[in-house]
Specification:
The protein is α+β, with helices and mostly antiparallel strands. The chain has a single domain (20-152), classed as Mago nashi protein (2-Layer Sandwich). It has helices spanning 2-15, 75-86, 135-152; strands at 27-33, 42-48, 51-54, 99-100, 110-116, 121-127. The protein has a six-stranded mixed β-sheet with strand order 3-2-1-5-6-4, with helices on one face. β1 (27-33) and β2 (42-48) form a beta hairpin. α2 (75-86) runs antiparallel to α3. The protein is globular.
Length: 153
C-alpha cells in the first residue's frame, strides 16, 4: 500500500507545472514597459532564488542595461509574482518567433518575458492587444498585467 501511495504522489508531482527551472542561476523577468512615455516607463520584475526584485530603470532599452534592486521585495510580493512562473505557457518555449503582434506600435504597453534556465536565455515581447497575439497567450498577458498592477500596489 505504501508503494502505491508513493507511486501516486510521484505521478502527481511529475504532472505539476515544472517546465520552468529557476534553480541555480535561473530566473524569469516579466512586466510591462512603454517606449512612448516620459517618466517611470518601466515596471519589470525578476524572480530568482525564491525572491522577487523590482527594476531600477526609468526606461527599458535592452536586457544588458536592465538593473534590479539588490534588495528583494517582501515575501507577500513574491507569492503574488510566483503565479507568473506557475502559469507560464509551455508552448512559448517551442515558438520560433519571439515577438507577438506589434508591441508598442499603438502607444500601448509592451509585455516583456525573459526566461533563463541557468545556461540559455529566451526573450519574448508581447502585444497587449488581445487580437494580435495567439489565443494561448491572451490569459498569460492579462495575468502579467494584473500581477504588475498588484506589485505596484
Amino acid at each position: 500500500m505504501k508503494s502505491v501511495f508513493v507511486l501516486i504522489a510521484g505521478f502527481i508531482f511529475m504532472s505539476c507545472n515544472d517546465h520552468l527551472r529557476l534553480e541555480d542561476e535561473g530566473y524569469i523577468i516579466f512586466g510591462v514597459y512603454n517606449g512612448f512615455c516620459v517618466i517611470d516607463c518601466t515596471d519589470l520584475y525578476k524572480i530568482k532564488d525564491g525572491q522577487v526584485y523590482g527594476e531600477t530603470n526609468d526606461y527599458f532599452t535592452s536586457l544588458e542595461e536592465l538593473k534590479f534592486s539588490d534588495d528583494p521585495l517582501v515575501e507577500s510580493s513574491y507569492l503574488k509574482a510566483k503565479v507568473v512562473v506557475d502559469d507560464f505557457p509551455d508552448k512559448l518555449l517551442d515558438e520560433k518567433e519571439n515577438v507577438f503582434g506589434c508591441p508598442g506600435c499603438h502607444d500601448q504597453d509592451i509585455v516583456l518575458v525573459v526566461y533563463n534556465d541557468g545556461s540559455e536565455t529566451w526573450e519574448w515581447t508581447l502585444d497587449t492587444d488581445q487580437n494580435a497575439i495567439p489565443a494561448y497567450l491572451e490569459t498569460y498577458v492579462q495575468l502579467i498585467k494584473e500581477t504588475v498592477a498588484e506589485l505596484k500596489g
